[in-house]
Amino acid sequence: MKEQLYTYGIQRNLQGIASLPVVVNENKPAIILFNAGVVHKVGPFDINISIASHLSSMGFLVFRFDLSGMGDSLKVKDGTSHQVTVINDLKQTMSFIESQYAVNTFIMMGLCTGADHAHKIACEDARVVGNVWLDGYGYPTAKFNFLRYAPVFFSPRRLVTAVYHKLVQADKLLKNIKGVDAYVWELPAKDKYIHEMNALYKRGVKSLYVFSGGVRDYYNYKDQFADSFKGHQFLKSVEIEYFPEFDHTYIIIKDREIMIKRVSVWLSENF
Question: Could you tell me which residues come within 8 angstroms of residue 100 by beta carbon, excluding any fewer than 6 positions away?
């Protein structure tokens, strides 16, 4: 894998690394990786390096970078919110890759908050043709609630513990409201999300959503996404994978390899 380090952006504050295939195919989308939460662009336990190495060997240009104020990228004091800055950073990154390699379509791949950012930039920029989520949005269903809460009611001890944790979480939420600049994602209203996904479907954007057992508190069975949106056409453009035995950050190498292989198959079939 050949890598090239870049400093770029309108204010020259962004730092990124391009993992290059033997030959850059201008007709093949570039894959963009970025921060999960406030973790450096290498990703939790270097997961982004593993992803970049494998996908570049498949012929994809993979670009991993730090958002403004994270890792090696400097923070710009321009008065905008964190979310607006993220969108601007992603747009500048796409434009930079386009100027360097003449690639003008992109696939966003993000873990946790990265999945949230990937969805939002896809809704704003037509250059995004694909999204890969690792533990993105999950909407509750009747089956989800049954699987999550039914066991609790058969154990008084677990019921008391569950109520206690809910009260503690509510107290922490009231004391730690971070607003729009929080490095966490907030689940969009379902109607808004449906509207956005319908628009992406009409535009031809394809998505792979991968969920792990590390997010059982909001996603706990493979078909939960499909059950949440029965009857909606955009489901045709979304593939779901669920790894209930894997952790949120894919710390186990074998688990990570299986996840990357799943992403590779999806990429080969669609791009």
Answer: 6, 18
- Retrieve residue 206's tokens: 């394809």
Averaged pLDDT for residues 137-148: 94
Is the predicted pLDDT of residue 155 greater than 70, yes or no? no
Beta-bridge mates of residue 239: 208
Domain ranges in the chain are 2-139+187-270, 141-178
Per DSSP, the three-state class of 116 is helix
In one letter, which amino acid is 252?
A: I
Torsion of CA 86, 173, 220, 34, to 10 degrees: 20
3-state SS record for 32-96? EECCCCCCCCCCHHHHHHHHHHHHHHCCCCEEEECCCCCCCCCCCCCCCCHHHHHHHHHHHHHHH
Q: How far is CA 73 from the centre of its chain?
A: 19
State phi, psi for 147 to the nearest 5 degrees: -65, -30
Cβ atoms of residues 144 and 224 within 8 Å: yes
Q: How far apart are CA 139 and CA 133, in angstroms?
A: 15
Q: How far apart are CA 60 and CA 23, in angstroms?
A: 9
CATH of the domain spanning 2-139+187-270? 3.40.50.1820
Find the helix or strand (DSSP H, E) in which 269 lies. helix 253-270
Cβ–Cβ under 8 Å, residues 68 and 85: yes
| Residue bearing the bigger pLDDT, 260 or 83 | 260
Q: Cβ atoms within 10 A of the Cβ of 179, count?
A: 7
Phi, psi (deg, nearest 5) at residue 114: -65, -35
Residue 150's pLDDT is 77
- Let me know: does 166 contact 90? Beta carbons within 8 Å: no
What is the C-alpha R_g of the chain?
19
pLDDT in tens, 201-215: 999 999 999 999 999
Strand 62-65 relative to strand 14-20, pairing: antiparallel
